Amino acid sequence: MKFDIKEEQLIIKPYENEGTIQVREQKGRYQGLRRKLSWLLMIIFMLVPFIPYNGQQAVLLDISEQQFRIFAITFWPQDFIFLAGIFMVAAFALFFVTAWLGRVWCGYTCPQTIWTLAYVWVEHRIEGNRNKRIALNKKPWTLEKINKKAQKHIIWFFMSFVTATTFVSYFVPVVELYSNMLSFEWSGLVTFWVFFFALCTYGNAGFLREKVCTHMCPYARFQSAMFDKDTLIVAYDPTRGENRGRRKRKDDPKELGLGDCVDCNLCVEVCPVGIDIRNGLQYECINCALCVDACDQTMDKFGYEQGLISYTSEQQLTGKTSPKFSYKLFGYASFTLLITALMAFWLYSRIPLEVSVLRDRNVLYRVNYEGHVENIYTLKILNKNQQAFHYSINVQGLDDVSVNIPDSVLIGAGKMLQIPVTLATDGYNLTKKMTDIRFVVQAVEQPETMLVKETVFFRD
User: Fold this and answer.
1) In the chain, how long is the greatest CA-to-CA distance?
2) What angle is formed at CA 406 by the lines to CA 444 and CA 450, rounded to 5 degrees?
3) Which of 68, 120, 144, 374 falls 20 to 30 Å from 14 in CA-CA distance?
4) The domain spanning residue 431 has which CATH number?
5) Are residues 319 and 380 in the same domain?
């Protein structure tokens, strides 16, 4: 097959503002699935901050207190390795899904896509269908145009404000956030972040739209490293569709020398990123399948078989079969499962207790009035639980040692307590100048919560 490529087609032009892409509203099986999934994800996003757990907010990423609370577990800065593990799991899972199903994340679950199409839905209801919106934008400013534009932007900003407030409620207790909002008592910091995220949502979903996907999102750029000939993509079948051309429904395309593509251009009009899928695989495509539903609808009207544009692979387009599983997919899946298992094991074996032992920096040891050798320490005990516990402190490695602490100390939920500890023993009990000892800190109500910290005891 020979292609004639003009010289000007090889020139890479700098970015130019193509204007707002007016997306035609489209229905179909894939759009029905995407809308249901979008509603589910938005409802989850809106409701999660309101879920109570043990008398407190179940999910709260409290930056001011440096603790992330997710139901029964509270993560602290010391648990940063778990956050890194979550990012690794998400990355490998994204690689696996991309190598297998292409950019379905972008088309069905990405917040940018969900909010953009929600804004387009509002735009369609107020300003009319695609053709009416284009005509309205070309009209001079009249009261009707001002009224429609004002309605649209007011609703858009209200949606942005709700989105931003919900997002901030993951970081500020929801009761405090909304009660202060109703009484107009938001702090300057909360007000800044709410309106900052509101403006970001308003700008991204209302104006930037596809430009975020094509020019700002790095995922569109490095996805080609994960794609292969067996990756599921949205593609046009040129062997069946070409030569494309308009015709009447009763016309025989073979007699006219035409393929199944009727050149209705609907696949372009419904595309949220403004590409023509008939030009082949393009990095801008987000696999939303809007063009698939539009093309299938046209094929039904002309009595042709569906699937001219479909989810397929490069191998299948050439008449070959794609394996259900490849070594690349196996590798991505294995790494995802391995890291997930390691994170699950770490979480299971995690002890909700942090203990550090600090020696007195001024003196290694001292001798008291009874002639006993004393060493002074400071114990920092952090209770990572969401309930208060009593903790016992025991010393191992010294005989006949006296400790100036009570049998147990009470530490509140998520609180740290500094406890000065003085150990004293007869110098004749020590055979070395440095004796290894251990502090054993154990929760009285939960004996399995225990940490052992090693240090040394000095004498002359």
Assistant:
1) 115
2) 30
3) 120
4) 2.60.40.10
5) no
pLDDT at res. 2: 39
How much is the pTM?
Answer: 0.85
Residue 5 and residue 10: Cα distance in Å, rounded? 8
Q: Is 305 helix (H, G, I), strand (E, B) or coil?
A: coil
Q: Give the H or E element holding residue 191.
A: helix 188-203
In a shared domain, residues 306 and 439: no
Q: What phi-psi label fits residue 19: left (phi over 0), alpha (psi between -120 and 50 degrees) or beta?
A: left
Average pLDDT, the chain: 90
Query: Pairing relation of β-strands 416-426 and 402-403?
Result: antiparallel
DSSP 341-361: HHHHHHHHH--SEEEEEEE-S
**Cα separations (Å) of 182 from 45, 62, 175?**
21, 22, 11
Tell me which residue range forms the domain holding 82: 13-350
Domain count, the chain: 2
Distance CA 408, CA 421 (A): 13
161, two tokens: 């404000």
Q: Are 287 and 102 in contact (CB under 8 A)?
A: yes
- 68 and 187 together in one domain: yes
Query: What is the spatial distance between Cα 150 and Cα 129, in angstroms, rounded to a whole number?
Result: 17
In a domain, 2, yes or no: no
Task: Please tell me the distance from the alpha carbon of residue 302 to that of residue 258, in angstroms, as a whole number.
Answer: 13
Distance CA 437, CA 179 (A): 52
- Checking if the pLDDT of 103 tops 50, the result is yes
d(CA 169, CA 62): 10
| Residue 142 token pair | 């009249």
Tell me the C-alpha to C-alpha distance, in Å, between residue 435 and each of 98, 349, 374, 429, 454: 57, 30, 13, 11, 11
| Contacts of residue 430, Cβ cutoff 8 Å, sequence gap at least 6 | 373, 457, 459
Do 345 and 399 share a domain, yes or no? Answer: no
Give the strand pairing for 372-383 and 366-367: antiparallel
